[in-house]
Every structure is written in structure tokens, then in C-alpha cells.
Amino acid sequence: MRRWGSMVVALGLFTLDCHTEYRATFVKRPDFGSIGDHKDDPFLKCHMKDGHVIVLEAWTVDDVAKTVRGYGLEYDVNRERIGPLEAKVVRLDDVVLVETNKPYAFQVGTGSIIALAIGTGVSIGVTVMCATNTKACFGSCPTFFADDGHGLALQAEGFSDAVARALETTDVDAMWTAAPKSRDFDVVMTNDALETHVVDSVRVLAARRPPGGRVLRAGTEYFEATRFTAPKSARADAGDVADKLRASDGDEYKSPASATNLADREHVDVIFPRPAGAKRLGLLVVDRNSLLNTFLFYQALAYAGRRAGDWLAALEAEGKSGFAGLGRLLGDIDVSVRDASGRYVDAGKVGEVGPIAREAELVVFPDEVARGTGDVEVRLTMARGNWKIDQIALVDVGARVEPVALDPRTVTKDGKRDDDARIALLDPKRHLVTYPHDAYTLEFELPEGDQELFLESRGYYYEWMREEWLREEDPLAAARMVLRPDVALRELAPKFKAIEPTMDRIFWQSRVPRW
Amino acid sequence: MVRRALLASCLVVACEGGPIDRTRAPTHDFSAPTRVSVRCVPVGGSPITLTTTDGSKLDGELLAASPDELVLLVGGDVVLHESAARIARADVDLYANGIVVGLLTFWAVAGTVSALSHGYLFVASGPTWALASSLAIAPIAADPGRFVTVQSDLGRLYQYARFPGGIPADVDVHAIRKSAPQSCD
């Protein structure tokens, strides 16, 4: 790195064309008396009647004798130097024109060199990043954007764990911050990663919100939710983290991963004031993955190396369950609630896969929780460093609702209507295949009224192999990740810890831009 | 990266526009008063290119300038008086930039090729390098500050002439030769 930096600096200095410009002032014969006004100019040229020119420095004017004295050189008409550098006295009567010069250093190309040097520095940084930290490259599955009232905002990422055709799945994400301005609602679907996305369908699920409330998804069921109660406290290893969990504001709670075993789990014990008169309670969790499972997935591909295709073929032949060990060990966010006897009892889990878009999910508590007394105590149990939790809230769970599924009315790409893409999304026998940089706008017509919106997407994707990954090809290690994931999670812990602090930054910087 | 490079390029363009008039101090941000040897102070005329009204071009050293005519030394020993009526345009060359442009171009090409080391990110970083470096070099290659272009008021060019006060009557114009190469030694 230092050598590269030196080369850049050397090239920059070498390229600099530093030359001298002269500020010149000319004084003609009638005004010779004003020559002294330019005494700050270091050089004075006397253009002589015979065509010679005498260049002086340290010059002075003798107005009485009408001479200029200085130390300098004389040149003939062809600007051949005459005589040595010496003290000279020039009679102004022999001079046609006096010129004073003040030199300035002028560097041609300095700005360009700065621009290229910046570009070179960034480029070297990317090279080093890709060479040393190849698991941090952006991987996203399809990402979906919609208007949140301020402009397009990330709302969902589709089928994140469907990394092969055999794993094709239907994924539903809450579009938690979507704020449609009218019944015409646009969703922008992008491929921002080095992946091939195979999209079977994209639908918007719309459910009318209750007055003052929202509609939340609990697995495959949807419930009205009202009266959101923030936690009083949330005790984690790092102390009380309730401030990070009170609102969906991007200020997330995330613990560091274990340095010895990536499957190590943690508890976050949360206390809510009990809302009066609630008939049924539930827990809202707004969360997303950290980059831990992204790291593990990419590491598995790197270990598989040139045989990654064979592994994925085996995955398709064996089915998801044979390769799900890592996911099982990392697990979801398990939610338990303290019952009247003081024991924590299992209430459910949330665990939408994906490191990009936040998901809002509901865990409905057993009815007796609402009938209890005192504070409501909830425990979250999860793998350390695997989750980023933005908000948790106790909610009054209302009636179950059935959303309306909406197909896209039109599909456009690059500003042009793409009916073929729309047909591919509507026809169950066809898929829409997208590549890096692709962006489609899907227009939906929403029902009347204040609607809670969810995005349902079905499909799968293939990650592109990075050349850098091939250096880590290790079939035995790949096999161990499948057959002994518990061992793999211990062995990989130090490797992940080494890049954990910078992984987020690099991940987002490596996002493939849309054109 | 692109934004920073573009910003820097734009700053360069903004700073380097316009001809340099020897009667004014250069306005470039990167200019600063400097000390030079008296031996280095230039005494020859500036290189000039004339475009005549019939479209032909003429290169030479500017010997003298007046509103009515320009006097050039062409081919090293031919003194040519060109009347203002025949001159469509005069470009005085203040400094050469070929080497700078060449080196910057080499740098840009090397940078673009080196972006191959970014793997698949090259689809973004390669074109970014090419575009940003082109934008960085273009202001230098087409630097308007390199020239003083005059289409009228030719007398203004006297300050770039070997004889800014005009060729003295005592000088035998047939004896005028190309200015001797100047050395700071």
C-alpha cells in the first residue's frame, strides 16, 4: 500500500508541469518617469533602439541622470547573449520601451493530478478491499423500494434465503414505511448485487388499517394492532438498550458476535408497562439480519470454489433440509414471556432473513398474558451479533384480517412499458430473470382507504462467484460447514470477528450501482 | 470516487479558464510569486499561429505587433509582414502541454486497466475510471489559458513580441534570425 502510494505521489510530481508566467508592465518613452512605480517587480527589460534587450535585476532608476542601473545581461536582435552577467548602466535615451517583469510559478495540471490521485487512492482501496475482504461484497436478492413520503425508500428484500432453484420460496415483507400518495402505487424492484434473480411473482398485499393502528404479520396470519407500548427497560449484556428499541428510527441494537462460537446466544430481557384493559397482547419486532449469515454464505461458496455449482446441484437434489444446519444453529429471534409462575414460556419467533430491509413481525402472546398483573416481561433469545433490532413494542392484538393480493397493473423498465416482464410475473410457468443494474417499476392499484401494505415475492437467485473467492477453495471445509456446522461456526468465529467492525461499511460501498 | 474526481475536475476547469494577459498577474489558484534567475527571464517572441482570411495557417515567432499588422519570423529567417486585413485570427502559444497531457493520459489508461483488479466491480469502476480521468484531463488538453486568441485589435499582442516597441528602424530585418535557445546557465 505504501509502495502504491509512493508511486502515485511520484507520478503526480513527475507529471506536474511547473513553469513560470510573468506579469509584465510596459512603460513607453514619455512615461519613463513612472518606471519607479514598479520597483516591486524584480526584473526590468530595456528594449533598445538598436533592437538589443538588456535584462536587469536589482535595478534602480536615476531620474536625474536618466539612467537605469542594475545587474544583468544583454541580448542582441537575435537574442544571443552578449557578454557576461555584470553590473550595467543603461541610458534611457537609448531605450524605446521599458518592461518590468514579476514571475509567478504556475503548475499546469495540478487539479487533474489531484482528481486522478483521488481516483487512484479510491481504486487502490477497492482493490485492497476486494483482495482482503471478499465476503463483504453486496448481496441483496431483489430489493424493493417505494415512496415513504419523502421519496423512494427501501421497503423489502425478497426471498433472501432462496439461493438455488430448489429453494424457491414465497416471501412476505411488511412495507413498514410505505406512504402511498394515491391509489396508484409504484414499487421499484432492483438487482443491486452481483446476482441473477429469477422472479416468479411480485404482489402487493393490502389490508385496511384499524383507526389509529396498523396491521401486522404473524407468520402467515395478519392481525390488527393498536396501542403500541414502548419498553420501560431492555437489559442486555451491554446494559439497558431500551433507547435503541423504542422507535423504528434506524438506531438499532446489535451485539458483537462471539469470538469463539458464532452460535453463542444472548438474552435481551425487556419489561413493558402493562396496558390497561387489553384482551390480547403481542410483540412487534422490527429487525433485520446483521451480515453474519451473509458472511457464512459467501464463505461456504468460497470453500466450494470451482465446485460451487456441484454443491448447488446437490442442494437442489437433496433439498433444503440437508444443508440447513448453519441456519438452524444461528436460529431466529426466539420470544418468550414470563408467566404467572415466573417462568419464561415460549411465545413464538421472528426471523426474516436478510441484512438490508427491516422487517416488522408480530408474535401473538397466549391469551393469559393479557389477563396477568404487573409489568409484562419478555425475553428475546438469539445468536450474538446475528440481528439488528430497531424497535420492539407491546401491542394490543385485534381481529385477524385477510389482505387483498394485488398483481402489478403495469411494469416499466428504463422508462418504457415492458409487457413481457409483466406477463412473466403473472404467469406461474414463467419467471422474470434480472441481472445487476436492472430496475423495474411495478405499478399497483390500491384499494380505497388507509391500507397496510406488504410485499409478497416468489423466486430464487444465484450468487455470482467472485474470482477472489476461488483462492479459498477448500472442499473439506465446505463439507464441514454442511456436515458439522457446529464445528464450522466455532472455527469461523475468529475470521468473522476480524472483519466484523468494517463489514457493514464495505458491504454498502460495494453495492452495484444502477445505470 | 466519481463525485470527488468530478468535483476536482470542475474546480480545475473553473480555475484555469481564460487567456493569460501578460499585463496582469495570472489568476490561477495554483500560482504564487516565485524567484527565478535573471538568466531565465525570456527575451524572445512567443510562438504564434496566424489563420488568414483564406483559411491558411502560418506558424512563426512574433516579432512585432500593431493594430495594422503583425510581423512574424517564419522558417527561422524570413520576416513576414501580414496586414490586419488578411488576418482572421491569431493564436499566441503561451506554453506547451503535450508532455503533461501524455503523462496524464498514461496515468488514466493505467488506472482504468488496473480497475480489472476489482473483479466484477470493474463493470462500475472501469467506466468510472475512464469517464472521470477523461474529465480530469480534458481541461488540460483543451486549456484555453494556453493561448491568447485575437481576432481583432491585433495591437494587443505587442506584449508577446520580441520587439514590443516595434522593430527599431536601425535593425536590418534581413539579419533577424530565430531567437537563440535560452539557457538559465
Task: Describe the secondary-structure layout.
The complex is a heterodimer of chains A (515) and B (185).
Chain A: H1 2-15, E1 17-28, E2 43-48, E3 53-62, E4 67-75, E5 81-91, E6 95-108, H2 110-132, E7 143-147, E8 152-157, E9 169-174, E10 184-190, E11 195-208, E12 214-218, E13 221-229, E14 233-236, E15 239-240, H3 242-245, E16 265-272, E17 281-289, H4 292-304, H5 308-318, H6 325-330, E18 333-338, E19 344-350, E20 359-364, H7 367-371, E21 376-383, E22 387-401, E23 404-406, E24 410-413, E25 416-417, H8 419-426, E26 432-434, E27 439-445, E28 451-463, H9 475-483, H10 485-491, H11 493-509
Helix pairs in contact in A: 1-2, 4-9, 9-10
Chain B: H1 2-16, E1 32-33, E2 47-52, E3 57-65, E4 69-74, E5 78-83, E6 87-93, H2 98-114, H3 122-141, E7 147-150
Antiparallel strand pairs in B: 2-3, 2-6, 3-4, 4-5, 6-7
Would you write up a description of this structure?
Chain A is built from 11 helices and 28 strands. By secondary structure, chain A is of the alpha+beta class. In chain A, the strands form 5 sheets. A 6-stranded antiparallel β-sheet of chain A has the order 1-6-2-3-4-5, with no helix packed on it. Chain A is elongated. Chain B has helices spanning 2-16, 98-114, 122-141; strands spanning 32-33, 47-52, 57-65, 69-74, 78-83, 87-93, 147-150. Chain B has a 6-stranded antiparallel β-sheet, with no helix packed on it. In chain B, strand 3 (57-65) and strand 4 (69-74) form a beta hairpin. In chain B, helix 1 (2-16) runs parallel beside helix 3 and helix 2 (98-114) packs antiparallel against helix 3. Chain B is elongated. Residues 1-21 of chain B have low confidence and may be disordered. Chains A and B meet through helix 1, strand 1, strand 2, strand 3 and strand 4 of A and helix 1, strand 1, helix 2 and helix 3 of B. Strand 6 (95-108) of chain A pairs antiparallel with strand 1 of chain B.
